[in-house]
């Protein structure tokens, strides 16, 4: 048996939280190794966040050119070269991977490419990608395992070889008719992008509305935006079976309240949730327990049920955002240094990058009502923000919740630059400021953030 190499810390998975933890510990003089199967830097720079936003931006450019005449700009017929779209995305990914390799070199953290498996507490066996085996022993173990796209057990679906977001972002051709299974964030972002590239797109969701975690008015507005661009949306539609082969011809039979219907397309994209990468790597050998959904069981300090083992990011049940994983790193880092930080009460922002984008932080109106909270709700259509009159981007609205102490409890925006405006509100919420601070702030004109003056000016006094 190969003798185990000794390390101060080992990280399995090179995603956001894991890599920053490894770099930080290595720079502090510890001997650290990171195990990674394939994606150097994790999924975000390779197959998820940044690649998708890269191609979504290309789709936005195509949409802008196609509508240039509305702004008095004469342009010829629009055509999209998907090979160039993908080449642009790949160039970005290559530069990001190079950046990560430079950081490993600069910090002294060792990157080991291979499949890791726990064989005993504090002992990891790695089947190296280039052949051979290594065995590592560590004092501290950090699990940054991530998730993968879920393929629902629909009859015939797996046999069609459907696209997930990974394959969809590698398409160097334009699907004639893309069928998207799932009305969540990933599915809707890619649905709009491919519609703008020129595909016919149908979104199928079994729920009664899109974005089930959002308020109904948010779901309705997003649906209107997508349908205005020609995306077909089928709701309360249960997929009964799928036939054919994606990239050729597929037939999806759905059951709806109005009866069965067959949808014929050329490609099928599955965007129906995520499954943690926690099975089959020996977590039980180290005494690491799982929750029923398959995430790693952790406390609010991200400590697992095993001594000196922590979990980071999606595999630990943290919100499925890169910035959540980064904050997981900060919590673990500070606690290892004697701090007392937890995940409890984190104010977690997020964006969905359709156009115009959706941004939310804090409570939704539905959550407040479900908890019986006495909150004032104010709403402002984006067309009331003068900046939108200059851009003709008037779709969407702002909405805020204000508590009895005049603090902001939640904010939602569908509109141009929503993520940037949300950051302003987030700063006020973190500071525990009264809504009146934003109501009375002198905000530059004409900007999108200026709409916060009017939004919070609508709050009724108690």
From TrEMBL:
<protein>
    <submittedName>
        <fullName>Pyruvate/2-oxoglutarate dehydrogenase complex dihydrolipoamide dehydrogenase (E3) component</fullName>
    </submittedName>
</protein>
<keyword id="KW-0547">Nucleotide-binding</keyword>
<dbReference type="InterPro" id="IPR036188">
    <property type="entry name" value="FAD/NAD-bd_sf"/>
</dbReference>
<feature type="binding site">
    <location>
        <position position="273"/>
    </location>
    <ligand>
        <name>NAD(+)</name>
    </ligand>
</feature>
<keyword id="KW-0560">Oxidoreductase</keyword>
<keyword id="KW-0274">FAD</keyword>
<dbReference type="InterPro" id="IPR016156">
    <property type="entry name" value="FAD/NAD-linked_Rdtase_dimer_sf"/>
</dbReference>
<feature type="binding site">
    <location>
        <position position="53"/>
    </location>
    <ligand>
        <name>FAD</name>
    </ligand>
</feature>
<feature type="disulfide bond" description="Redox-active">
    <location>
        <begin position="44"/>
        <end position="49"/>
    </location>
</feature>
<keyword id="KW-0285">Flavoprotein</keyword>
<dbReference type="InterPro" id="IPR023753">
    <property type="entry name" value="FAD/NAD-binding_dom"/>
</dbReference>
<comment type="similarity">
    <text>Belongs to the class-I pyridine nucleotide-disulfide oxidoreductase family.</text>
</comment>
<keyword id="KW-0520">NAD</keyword>
<dbReference type="GO" id="GO:0003955">
    <property type="term" value="F:NAD(P)H dehydrogenase (quinone) activity"/>
</dbReference>
<dbReference type="InterPro" id="IPR004099">
    <property type="entry name" value="Pyr_nucl-diS_OxRdtase_dimer"/>
</dbReference>
<dbReference type="InterPro" id="IPR001100">
    <property type="entry name" value="Pyr_nuc-diS_OxRdtase"/>
</dbReference>
<dbReference type="Pfam" id="PF02852">
    <property type="entry name" value="Pyr_redox_dim"/>
</dbReference>
<feature type="domain" description="Pyridine nucleotide-disulphide oxidoreductase dimerisation">
    <location>
        <begin position="348"/>
        <end position="452"/>
    </location>
</feature>
<feature type="binding site">
    <location>
        <begin position="182"/>
        <end position="189"/>
    </location>
    <ligand>
        <name>NAD(+)</name>
    </ligand>
</feature>
<keyword id="KW-0670">Pyruvate</keyword>
<dbReference type="Pfam" id="PF07992">
    <property type="entry name" value="Pyr_redox_2"/>
</dbReference>
<dbReference type="GO" id="GO:0050660">
    <property type="term" value="F:flavin adenine dinucleotide binding"/>
</dbReference>
<feature type="active site" description="Proton acceptor">
    <location>
        <position position="445"/>
    </location>
</feature>
<feature type="domain" description="FAD/NAD(P)-binding">
    <location>
        <begin position="7"/>
        <end position="326"/>
    </location>
</feature>
């Amino acid at each position: 048996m190969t003798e185990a190499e000794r390390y101060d810390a080992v990280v399995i998975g090179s995603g956001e939280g894991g890599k920053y933890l490894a770099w930080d510990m290595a720079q502090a003089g510890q001997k650290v190794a990171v195990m990674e199967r394939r994606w150097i830097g994790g999924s975000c720079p390779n197959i998820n966040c940044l690649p998708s936003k890269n191609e979504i931006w290309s789709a936005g450019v195509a949409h802008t050119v196609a509508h240039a005449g509305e702004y008095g700009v004469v342009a010829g017929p629009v055509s999209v070269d998907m090979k160039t779209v993908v080449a642009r995305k790949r160039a970005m990914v290559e530069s990001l991977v190079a950046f990560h390799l430079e950081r490993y070199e600069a910090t002294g953290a060792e990157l080991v490419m291979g499949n890791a498996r726990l064989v005993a507490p504090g002992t990891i066996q790695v089947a190296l990608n280039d052949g051979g085996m290594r065995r590592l022993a560590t004092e501290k173990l950090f699990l940054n395992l991530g998730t993968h796209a879920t393929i629902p057990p629909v009859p015939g679906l797996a046999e069609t070889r459907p696209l997930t977001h990974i394959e969809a972002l590698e398409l160097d051709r334009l699907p004639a008719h893309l069928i998207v299974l799932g009305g969540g964030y990933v599915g809707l972002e890619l649905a709009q992008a491919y519609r703008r590239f020129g595909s016919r797109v149908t979104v199928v969701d079994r729920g009664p509305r899109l974005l089930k975690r959002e308020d109904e008015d948010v779901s309705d507005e997003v649906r209107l935006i997508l349908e205005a661009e020609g995306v077909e949306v089928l709701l309360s539609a249960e997929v009964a079976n799928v036939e054919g082969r994606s990239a050729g011809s597929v037939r999806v039979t759905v059951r709806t309240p109005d009866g069965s219907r067959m949808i014929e397309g050329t490609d099928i994209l599955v965007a129906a949730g995520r499954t943690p990468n926690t099975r089959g790597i020996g977590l039980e050998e180290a005494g690491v327990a799982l929750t029923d959904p398959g995430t790693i069981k952790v406390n609010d300090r991200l400590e697992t049920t095993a001594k000196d083992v922590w979990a980071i990011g999606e595999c630990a049940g943290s919100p499925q955002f890169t910035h959540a994983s980064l904050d997981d790193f900060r919590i673990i880092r500070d606690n290892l240094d004697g701090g007392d930080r937890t995940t409890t009460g984190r104010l977690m922002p997020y964006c969905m990058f359709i156009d115009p984008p959706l941004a939310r932080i804090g409570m939704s109106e539905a959550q407040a009502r479900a908890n019986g909270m006495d909150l004032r709700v104010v709403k402002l259509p984006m067309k009331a923000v003068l900046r939108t009159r200059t851009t003709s981007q008037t779709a969407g609205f702002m909405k805020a919740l204000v508590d009895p102490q005049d603090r902001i409890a939640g904010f939602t925006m569908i509109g141009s630059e929503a993520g940037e405006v949300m950051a302003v509100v987030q700063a006020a919420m973190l500071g525990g400021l009264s809504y009146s601070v934003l109501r009375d702030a002198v905000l530059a004109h004409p900007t999108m953030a200026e709409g916060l003056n009017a939004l919070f000016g609508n709050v009724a006094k108690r």
